[in-house]
Each structure stands twice: as structure tokens, then as C-alpha cells.
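Need Methylamine utilisation protein MauE domain-containing protein's 3D structure for a figure. Predict it.
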Amino acid sequence: MKTNTYILNTLVVLLLTLWIPSSLYKLIYYEAFKSGILQQPLSYTVAWTLIYSLPALGMVTAILLVTERFRKVGLLLSSIQLILFTGYIALVLLKVWGKPPCSCGLAIPQMGWTNHLWFNLFFLAISITGYVLYVKTSNSKKDIHADPVAAQRVF
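Structure prediction for Methylamine utilisation protein MauE domain-containing protein:
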């Protein structure tokens, strides 16, 4: 069980290396971020909703991930965001909208869309693995507390 906790903590740290810098980039370079989103093939309403919500959503995700009580929600939110972002990239690669510019910031624009897809799939796998491991670890803790005999075997 301790090994699962170490693995889970490592996965959370990896996710924090994604969410914190990307959220800070969107805030620090707000005008560039806004310009990039407005160049995407999105409706005006969706674009402005993303402009206002994505930086906050990334920071909320990071806060949830570091808060033990809300880590499960953070892992789920991370997974959902990455599924949506990865789906969007897949649609770009399928040329559904031509070739819009990447508005993610940091080193990602230099990656190109294909590498960006792999980057997102990597972090999506981390998020989903973290979520599954968290649920598995939480359930085994509940089992130990519910079964005193099992608790004696572990300790």
C-alpha cells in the first residue's frame, strides 16, 4: 500500500508540472493566450469562455491535486480536461478545421500538433492512472478499517 502511495504522489507531482506552469503562462502572457484562443476555430462565446475559465481551471486543478481531501476530484478534473484537449488536438490532426495555431504556450507550440498529441496522451495516461490508483488505494484503506483482521495482516 505504501508503494501505491509513493507512485500516486509521483503522478500528482508530474501533473503539477503540467497544470501550474501552463496556468501561470496563461495569466502572465494573458494577451498572447487570448490572441491564440481567439484564432481557434471556436465560436466567439466559447472562445471567451475559455479565455476566462482555462487559467482558473488549471489552478483549481493544481490546488485540488495537492489537497488530500480533494485529490480524487483533482485527478478526475485533470483527466476530463486532458480528454477534451487531446480530442481537440486529434480533430486538428484530422484537419477538421484546417491548421489552427497552437495557443498553449511554453514549449508546446514548438512541438507541432503530432508531438502535442503524444504529450497530452502521456499526461492523460498519468491522470487516469492516478485516478484509478487513488480509488484503489482508498478502497483498500476502507477495507482495512472495516476488517480488523485484515488490518492486523497489513501492520
